[in-house]
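Q&A log
Question type: sequence-to-structure
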Amino acid sequence: MGKGGKQGITHQMMVAVGMQEEREPTLWDEIDEAVSLSRTQRIYGFAICAVTGMILGFLSLLFLFPVPDFVGFGILYSFGSVLTIMSTMFLVGPVKQIKNMLKKNRIIATVVYLTSIALTLYCAIALEDGLLVLVCLLVQYVAYLW
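Response status: OK
Response body:
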């Protein structure tokens, strides 16, 4: 494959005919190459993370009845959200997923969403404050829909 690692065939051909210089792989290229999976592995990873995330989301509802426990609900719901994000990384790859999340039209929603997940977990685990967890969950849900 050459010095650049896993590069596109078009780039390799242009280097061969002298139309482009061979470039050093970027950090993104190295990450993408290090986590390359087969199609079957990607589908399995996606399915496992997506199903586990959905199960955690549904199980979190058990903490709302008969007496609401927003701390337990927040923990399970947030971990379910993290697994759901991870599941899509298996399909498109972590580098492309991160680049998509950091696009100009998504960056604010991404930062708010990820921050609200972190704050939800902090309020639930460290502070054990159900009201703050509920506020963070509402922000998390709105950012997800945004």
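Response note: The first helix runs from residue 9 to 16.
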